[in-house]
């Protein structure tokens, strides 16, 4: 009986906790184009979705070519679902690009990182 | 003599089934999970409840020894962002062959993360723990707690490889722990010995969480997982007692190794591990470990989950 009660309590607690999704530190959860992926055509914008709410004033992103040349973009804008939108000034040519991001989550933790994606010839 | 076999194998099983302290750590972009065989290298506000372990011991003659199930717990509290204390126990143990059960002693620990380099995802820390004798089940219980206290200095290290130039290497991380456990009573009233133990372990982790964020995007079902391989070993180094024919050597190293898997959410972690004994003195067949670890710094970031003094977690974040 003790085993059963403990198991039920643990399962209930786990069920409650599983219903929540995010990190105290905001990490990149999903990107368009995807982290490390190869796509066939240039997207109109880059989208970076984070694991928890971020503060727009302290969050941003930029992109460069594999050779380090800046990619012209608009200002990064935070949209719904913790997604950072970075509109491209013009379509990207085939090649590999490096995206750098920095964000501050609503509980003041800072994280940053880079990733690559490739547009196929 | 059979009783001696049973006691020796039970002691080995309890030692290996004993759960270390639990916590998760963030250094730079690296999340070190609360590993099952060794403690992670950080200081945090967490509640491990429950931590389950199962292991079957073997007798020196090859027959099955005791089978132990236990539910452990630990509460960790930060005093400053780099210094924390904890209280916990190996909890309640149900033993079969022979039948016995009882509470383990209470353990306390003070831990200091004295070096952190977020850019290189590198951390070192040290701790001193005290298992307080006779705070578990009384000596009249079928599975009494140790009647003596044990003091243990500890050293921890953690390194993530997010700074590696090769993308394939960046999700990897390693952690390690070395303990030196000194019992306050070396010879028991029945003439048996309480050895001084050197305990050491390590984990090799591959973070799909890290891979998803920085190297290659993964399907949602995988991107919060951290598979690992880990192990822990204990070697008696002093006060081993005499060699008794037909019993396990008092000089023998025991340990378990095995694969583990961790799921990291915002408020909790779930970890499971198959623990494979390294020799007969360590166990009879594959056992299991599991933990539900609640991140109090995320559940209550402005109250229970923040350090009593100093800014919460600022040294761990990357600016």
Automatic annotation (TrEMBL), chain A:
The keyword Repeat does not apply. Residues 1-24 form the signal peptide. GO terms for biological process: copper ion transport; response to copper ion. Its main location: other. The keyword Signal applies. InterPro entries: CopC/D, CopC_dom, Cu-Rt/internalin_Ig-like, Ig_E-set. This is CopC domain-containing protein. It comes from Methylovirgula ligni.
TrEMBL record, chain B:
Keywords: Signal. This is Outer membrane beta-barrel porin/alpha-amylase. Residues 1-23 form the signal peptide.
């Amino acid at each position: 009986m003790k085993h059963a009660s403990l198991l039920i309590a643990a399962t209930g607690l786990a069920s409650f906790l599983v219903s929540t999704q995010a990190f105290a530190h905001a990490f990149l959860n999903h990107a368009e184009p995807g982290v490390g992926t190869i796509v066939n055509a240039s997207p109109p914008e880059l989208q970076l979705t984070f694991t928890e709410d971020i503060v727009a004033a302290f969050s941003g992103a930029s992109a460069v070519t594999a050779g380090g040349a800046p990619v012209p973009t608009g200002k990064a804008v935070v949209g719904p679902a913790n997604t950072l939108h970075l509109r491209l000034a013009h379509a990207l040519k085939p090649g590999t690009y490096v995206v750098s991001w920095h964000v501050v989550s609503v509980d003041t933790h800072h994280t940053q990182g880079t990733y690559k994606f490739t547009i196929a010839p | 003599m059979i009783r001696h076999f049973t006691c020796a194998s039970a002691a080995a099983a309890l030692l290996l089934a004993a759960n270390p302290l639990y916590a998760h750590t963030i250094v730079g972009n690296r999340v070190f999970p609360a590993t099952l065989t060794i403690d992670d290298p950080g200081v945090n506000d967490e509640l491990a409840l429950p931590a389950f372990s199962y292991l079957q011991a073997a007798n020196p003659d090859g027959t099955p020894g005791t089978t132990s199930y236990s539910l452990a717990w630990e509460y960790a509290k930060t005093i400053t962002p780099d210094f924390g204390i904890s209280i916990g126990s190996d909890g309640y143990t149900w033993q079969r062959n022979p039948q016995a059960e009882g509470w383990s002693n209470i353990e306390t620990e003070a831990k200091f993360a004295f070096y952190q380099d977020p850019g290189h995802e590198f951390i070192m820390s040290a701790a001193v723990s005290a298992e307080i004798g006779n705070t578990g089940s009384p000596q009249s219980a079928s599975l009494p707690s140790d009647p003596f206290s044990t003091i243990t200095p500890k050293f921890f290290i953690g390194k993530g490889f997010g700074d590696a130039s090769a993308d394939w290497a960046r999700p990897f991380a390693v952690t390690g722990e070395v303990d030196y456990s000194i019992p306050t009573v070396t010879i028991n009233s029945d003439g048996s010995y309480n050895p001084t133990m050197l305990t050491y372990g390590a984990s090799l982790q591959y973070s799909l969480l890290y891979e998803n964020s920085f190297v290659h995007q993964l399907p949602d079902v995988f991107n919060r997982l951290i598979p690992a391989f880990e192990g822990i070993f204990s070697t008696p180094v002093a006060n081993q007692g005499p060699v008794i024919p037909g019993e396990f050597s008092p000089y023998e190293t025991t340990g378990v190794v095995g694969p583990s898997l961790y799921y990291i959410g915002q408020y909790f972690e779930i970890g499971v591990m198959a623990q494979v004994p390294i020799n007969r003195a360590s166990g009879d067949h594959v056992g299991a470990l599991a933990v539900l670890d609640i991140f109090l710094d995320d559940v209550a970031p402005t109250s229970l989950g923040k350090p009593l003094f100093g800014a919460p977690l600022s040294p761990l974040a990357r600016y």
